[in-house]
# Entry
Amino acid sequence: MEVRRDKRPATGNEIKFSLPGHIKHSLKNGAEIYLVKKTDLPIARINFIINSGSKFDPKSKYGLSNLTAMCIDEGAGELDALQLSDEFDYLGAHFSVHSDSDITILSLQTLSENFNTALNLLSSVILSPHFKENDFLREKRKVQTRIEQLKDEPDYIANSAFEFFLFGKQNPYAFPVIGINDALNGIEISDVKEFYKSFFNPQNTSIVAVGNFEDEKLISRIESTFQDWIKGNNFSMEFPTGRKKDPKICVIHKQDAVQTEIRIGHLSEIRNDKDYFQKQLLNLILGGQFSSRLNLNLREKHGYTYGISSRFNYLKNDAYFSVSTSVNTENTLGATDEILNELTKVREGITEEELAFAKSSISRRFPLNFETYSQTASNFSSKIIHNLADDYFETFLSKILNVEIEDVNTVAAKSIVPDSALIVLCGDEKKILEQINSLSFSEVAVVNYDQIYSG
# Structure
C-alpha cells in the first residue's frame, strides 16, 4: 500500500469525553488542595507542589533547590534512606521527588487500600527529613558527576547554552536546574537545611489528590497528618523584563562532533496570555507534529534531519519560543536557512485546511491528558503552577474549536519573530563557521561551554 505523506489523513467522528470531577479546598494550615475523582482503578495518587524551584537558588549557589530535593528523602522520621525505600516498596507504592525551575514536586502513587500508610511515610519526608552530612555529601557528588557527564551530551549543551544567552545572566531561568559545579562546591548541608526551612511550608504548597476518595474523609486525613506542619510564607519574585532584539549566533565547539545541534528562538509571552490557544494551534502547524511545516521541509523534502520540533516553552514567570533539531555538520547552514524561511513564511498566514487538522489533532488528544492517574495529577498541577482559571479544563475544547484563522494569523505575525531570533549551534566549530560566515547577522560569537557561567 502506498503511503502518501503529502496528504493529510481524513478525520473520524467526534470523540465523547467526560472530564474527571474535581473540587478545590483550602486546608486549615494554608495549603490548597484539588480533589480529583477518578474511579476506574483502585489507585490513589497525591502530588505536593512546593513553590521552591531553582529560580529561588541564591546567585552563588545554583543547584541548591535540586540538591535539597535529592536529599529530602535520604532518611526521614525514624527511618534511614534504605528503610524508607523498603517501606514504600513493601506497600507497592511509587514515590518520587523532582525539582525544576519553578517547583519541587513530591509524588506518591499507591493502591487505595495502602494510601493512609503511604501518606504517613510521605508526611515524614515532608515534615522530618534527616539531612545528615554523609547523605548530603553523597548526593552532592552524584550531582557533580552528572554535570561532568552532561558536558559530553551535545543536546544538553545546546539547550542550556540557548537558555543562558536567551534569558541573560540576570535572570534565574538562565541557569540549569541541576546547577553548576563552581556553585555546588560552595553549598553546605546548612544551606540545604535553611532552604528547606524557608520554602517547605503549607502556605507555599498546593496539593493534588487523584482517586476514588470520599472528599471530607481525605481532607480530614490530610489535616490530621499535617497538623504540625509549621506555617510560613508564600514566595514570589520579580523577573527582568528586558527583551533582546538583535539576532545573534552562538557557536559552541564540540570535539569530534559529526552533527550540529541547532536551537533557534526568542522570548515570548507567559502562559496565562490570552493568545495561548491560538499559539497552540499555530505551533502544531509549524513544528508541533510529524506533519508540521518544519518536519515536511527539513526531513521529508531536504533530508537534513530525522526530526525537528518547535514549541512555546512556558515557565511560571517567563516563556520562550524555540525550534530544536540536529543535522549532519555539512547541512548546518542549509538547515538553519530553511528553519528561518519557515518562520518567515508562517507569519504570512496558514490555511483553513491546516487549521482544521490542528483543531482535530488537539481535540482528539485532549482526553489522553487524563488517561492515567499520573497524567491527571500532572495536568492539575500545571493548572496550579500557571494560575489558570478554575474552569480551564472545562472550557479548553470550546476555546480551541472557536479559534478563527484570522486569530492564528494575527498571533503568528506577533509571536514568531525570526529577525530577533537567537541561534545556538553546537558542533564542529571550524566546519560550522565555514558555512555561516556568509550569513548577515549582527553578531557571531564562538563560545567555550565551560566558561559560559563564569563570565
About this structure: Residues 133-150 form the longest helix (18 residues).
